Amino acid sequence: MNRHILVTGGAGYIGSHICKSLARAGYVPVTLDNLCNGNPWSVRWGPMVKADIADPFTLAEMIGQYRIESVVHCAAYAYVGESMRDPGKYFENNVARSIRMLETLIENGVRQLVFSSSCAVYGIPEELPIRENVPTRPVNPYGESKLFIEKALDWYARARGLRSVSLRYFNAAGADPGGEIGEWHDPETHLIPLAISAALGEREQFEIFGTDYPTPDGTAVRDYSHVSDLADAHVLAVQRLESGGANDIFNLGAGAGHSVQDIVAAIERVCRVRVQAKVGVRRSGDPAVLYASPERARSVLGWRPVHSDLETIIRSAFDWQLQCRDDKGLRYSRD
Ligand code: UDP
């Protein structure tokens, strides 16, 4: 069996952790990334080609050169707020270019795909924890773009024999426990890195988006799972497809809800720092409470998150941010 796996978006935060997990499992990840958001320094476990997913010639060449049979498709725009302001950008990249990529994959004999989806497909859930079979009603173009591809994959399985696993991520957080890669977004919009950099004095203060939610402390609740655990689920998904598994969809969340206040308190406790937090208004499009039932991922995929306790997530994110601060020159010069 060929051990090369094509990873689109392999230079990104989640994509690079997936590459590391694939390499640990004996595969060779081959990254395809246009580097619009990715970082070349995070590609460490296999070759990278800088190109767009919708470039059929490069894609066909990579499939031929590396005899690709399975693809992990992570490349996408992922800023919810931006998608509200500029939906066309999200539909063009996440939908139209993904479809062009799927056509090229199929024309070149690829029949197995793992798709990075999102809990944004659910919108505002009617029941908690969220199971895969609840209605999907996205409340932003980002979630809509992910749902569109999930549905397209269902039709591609029936019509063209492309089998896929869609993984609906809840909140990815933390950094590689080995300290080799971690989160590096520009601009950074995520709760944990922003609160940590406020604590480290890298930004003036951190804002809590809304304290008037119908939750015990008034702040929004999310399900944070460690990025290395999410990455490991992709290896299981590839293996499932390799052993003939049919199309399927799984939630990837740790199954526990933590409020913004819980996260701030945990950062202060675990890292022994003060987070200067200012109370702000709700961010548009943010549901009050989201957390997964990871039951299907456990029972069907055999997924066991081992790093997703809050302390490990925060400790690894904090260590990574300290390392980035010490190593900024090096990091930029690697780009
Ligand atoms: N959040 C916040 N301040 C920030 C960034 C995020 O209060 O500076 C809140 C946000 O409103 C949400 C939670 O933290 O309730 C997680 O947000 P994040 O952007 O990390 O992930 P998302 O849930 O949007 O994927």
Extract low-pLDDT stretches.
none
Proper CATH architecture of the largest domain? 3-Layer(aba) Sandwich
Please state the structural category: alpha/beta
Counting DSSP H or I runs of 4 or more residues, the number of helices is 11
The distinct ligands, each listed once, are:
uridine-5'-diphosphate
In words, what does this structure look like?
Helix content is 41%, strand content 16%. It has eleven helices and 13 strands. The strands form four sheets. Strands 3-2-1-4-5-6-11 form a seven-stranded parallel sheet, sandwiched between helices. Helix 2 crosses helix 4 (87-107). The chain is globular. The structure holds uridine-5'-diphosphate.
Short description:
The chain is an alpha/beta fold and 335 residues long.
Any chance you could write out the topology, listing elements then pairs?
Blueprint: E1 4-8, H1 13-24, E2 28-33, E3 48-50, H2 56-66, E4 70-73, H3 80-85, H4 87-107, E5 112-118, H5 141-160, E6 163-169, E7 171-173, H6 191-199, E8 206-209, E9 221-222, E10 224-226, H7 227-242, E11 248-252, E12 258-259, H8 260-271, E13 277-280, H9 295-301, H10 310-326, H11 328-334
Parallel strand pairs: 1-2, 1-4, 2-3, 4-5, 5-6, 6-11, 7-10, 8-13
Antiparallel strand pairs: 9-12
The structure holds uridine-5'-diphosphate.
Uridine-5'-diphosphate (UDP) binds next to helix 6 and strand 8.
